[in-house]
Every structure is written in structure tokens, then in C-alpha cells.
Amino acid sequence: MNIFSCKIIILIISFSTFLTKAQESHPSRLKALVNYKIITLKDEQVQKDKIILLKNGKIFKFISEKEFDEYQIADSLIIDGHGQFLMPSFSEMHAHLQPKNPFHKQYLKDFLGYGITRIRVMAGNENLLAWRDSISEGLLMGPELKVAGPLIDGTPPLWGKAHDGPVVDEVNKVDSVVRMQKSQGYDFIKLYERLPADVYFAFLKAAEKYDIKVAAHIPLALLSKPVIKKVFNKKSPSFEHLKNFGPFVTCSEIQKVEAPDDYNYYGTELCKDPDAFKVKQVVYQIKANNIWICPTSVLWKNSSHKEVIENLIETEAFARMDRALKNWWLSSKDSGQRNIPMDELSSVFLEEMARQKVKVLAGTDFPNPFLIPGLSLHQEMQNLVKHGFSNLEALRAATIYPAQYWEEIVGTDYFNSGGDANFVILKKNPLKDIRNTLSIEKVIFKGKFFQPKTLFTS
């Protein structure tokens, strides 16, 4: 029996609240998503005869049409996809948020409007923990937040007086810092590049002891005599931006350079002449040791190429940014060329990682220049494809792999029973063209439907 001939679809989407009335009225009853082309991302196939059952904002079951006949679900709780594409929602794996900036609450909605239902926030504080909890409790609209503790650096901290996290130069202080950030409820710790080498490794050991994840830039102290296996191994944290990778692959003679010039020397100058064989060696170690890399290639690309910047300035999305942010971005427009060496090194590494089939995490580093919240993550996926990743792998970098990183799924089975009902509904198939991730019709966050365009203006 054809289920669609015997069940009348009477779903009404309330555009004033962006939620289905049925979901608000019956939060604990089963709801069914039917007649969707489902992209599971297990492979490049599209499922056309599957139904997703939801309950309390979670995936209840992922079943066939035949199995669905066994369930008694009110017509008002059946949501017809009319043949549109449905896939897992996106994770932004590297961004910064500023609770004291009133515009950032709107940017939370912008992220959500672009199908992003989770953000890994890379430098945290008590206000961000409050935001995280308010979102979890439904008091603040925005993606789920995973928040790092206050940034940990050595002397002098890279950002000078602007640094507001721990400054640690002695191994005996490490344990208490990690224990404190864990007890305060942070989701992971972030290590910066002025840490002494022994302190950096002590942090990795303490994080393992307290079972908390680590994201890091490679410390400058390890770069004057870079040893690949010392940095890239099974104890490694997730590495961000491909920052300070240059010294491991340079053809140049490396000289030890002290602060304050070390940042530019190790981070930029030694990016300019990568050796292809050394790049292969580093990527091999990354692959062999299952090290998470968040390349944020869009960080370098969007800030350093005039034509990219000019195109972004003309977009409606850029017009929505607050005046102070736009002024900062525009003031940096002519100096962005300093990032070209990192953009070129990023391209070399991405191409090699695509060849060796390394799993990467998609992130951007918003609010750095010309990284429009939400849109830039889609540009990052496009960059991955441009550098050799398949459409499937680029999509996984923003969906499946973040879930693996947080140890929520094993393998690629996103549609496990009990998982959050977080999806994007697309007009076009992104497996055919990665740009189709932007053909968003609706976003489903914990079982609730949102209309993107209205979120952008709310």
C-alpha cells in the first residue's frame, strides 16, 4: 500500500515563529519526515525510500516505507519533503564569538540560517559558557556551542595585552590549569604558540589525564629544529590553520629567531618554499596517526585575494555585517597580501591530504577579515573540492567528521537512533555540485524547522 495515497499531509509551517505547529503542540509524539531524498553521507548514494522518525528533537528511527506502515502517526505529524534533499546539518569547527558584542547574537542566527547547528568556539570565557547553556535550554537562539577554555599561552603571549587567558611557563603549573578548565565546564582546551616545548607536552599529558580534548598551534619553540615525528604522532592535538607547518617542509636553512619576530619568521617566511617530499612525509604522519587537522583555508584565501574580497563586498551577506566589523575588514583589505604565503602553503597541503585521503575538519576562523558567518563555511567546503577532495569528503568535513571528533558516532552512521535531529533541506544535490550546499530551503535543529531568510533578518 502506498503510504502517500492514504495519508493527507496537512502540515502548516508557521513563518512567524519558524516552527511547525505540530512540533510545538506535540513535542513527545512521533513525527515522520517522508518523501525526502536522503543523503546519509555513508557513500554517494541518495536514499529515496527511507523515512526518518523523530521524537523529542531526536532521531527515533531511520526506516523504510514498508516499515512505516506499522506506525500510527497523526496526519498532522507527517512532514512531506516533496522530493527535496535532506542531509546532516553542518558544524563550524573553528570560530570565535564575542558575547559582549551585541551583534554576535544575530550572527548566531546567521550561522543557523546557513545550516550550521554546532560551532566549536576556540577561545572561551564564562559569558560564552552562559551562552552555551542558554542555547541548550532554549533561552537563546543559535547553534549548539562547544567552548574552549581561555586561551593558554607562554611569555610573552602572542596577543600581548589583549591576551586574557593563563600564561604558563613552568611545567608544575600545567596540571592545575587543565584541572581548573575541566572543572569549569569547558569542552576542550586551546594551546597557543608561545608555550615552551616542555610545557606544551605537559599540557597534552595533563589533558589525557583529565580526559579533555586539545586544539593547538604548533609552538614556536619546536620550530628552530623541527622534528616531524616529535610533533605529529598519536598524542597530537587537533592542529589549526596549518599554522607553523612551514618549518617542517621548507627548503630553506632554518635559523633560530627569538620573539618578537619569530611569529612572522616561522609562520610566514618559511612557508614560501615547501619541499614536496617533506609535505608528503608530514601528511603521511597525519594520516597514520589519525591527527585531526582544521585547515581553515578560507581564512587565507578570503583575506589575500583582491578579486575574492571585491566579490564578497558586493554580497547581501556582507551588507548584513555590523559597521565596526566591516570597517575592520575593509581597513585590512590592502594588507591581506601578507597571507598569500600561507594560502599557497595551504593549497600544497590540501592537495596532498586529498591524495592521501586524510580526514579534515571544516572551519573558518570567523570573525577574521572577510569570513562571513555561515557563508564562509560553505566556501571552505568549496575550497576542499577545488584542491582535490571529493564532494563527499568535503561534506563529511563539515558533518560526519566533526561528529567523529566529538566521539558521537563510530564510522559514518549519522542517522543512529538517539542522535539529535539536525538536518538541512536542500533544493539541489551537493554530491553533484558542492555549491548546492547553499540551496538551503529549511534548517532542522533538534527537530524544529527554521526558515533561513527570516533568520537573517530577525
Automatic annotation (TrEMBL):
<dbReference type="GO" id="GO:0016810">
    <property type="term" value="F:hydrolase activity, acting on carbon-nitrogen (but not peptide) bonds"/>
</dbReference>
<protein>
    <recommendedName>
        <fullName>Amidohydrolase-related domain-containing protein</fullName>
    </recommendedName>
</protein>
<dbReference type="Pfam" id="PF01979">
    <property type="entry name" value="Amidohydro_1"/>
</dbReference>
<feature type="domain" description="Amidohydrolase-related">
    <location>
        <begin position="86"/>
        <end position="448"/>
    </location>
</feature>
<dbReference type="InterPro" id="IPR051781">
    <property type="entry name" value="Metallo-dep_Hydrolase"/>
</dbReference>
<dbReference type="InterPro" id="IPR032466">
    <property type="entry name" value="Metal_Hydrolase"/>
</dbReference>
<dbReference type="InterPro" id="IPR011059">
    <property type="entry name" value="Metal-dep_hydrolase_composite"/>
</dbReference>
<dbReference type="InterPro" id="IPR006680">
    <property type="entry name" value="Amidohydro-rel"/>
</dbReference>
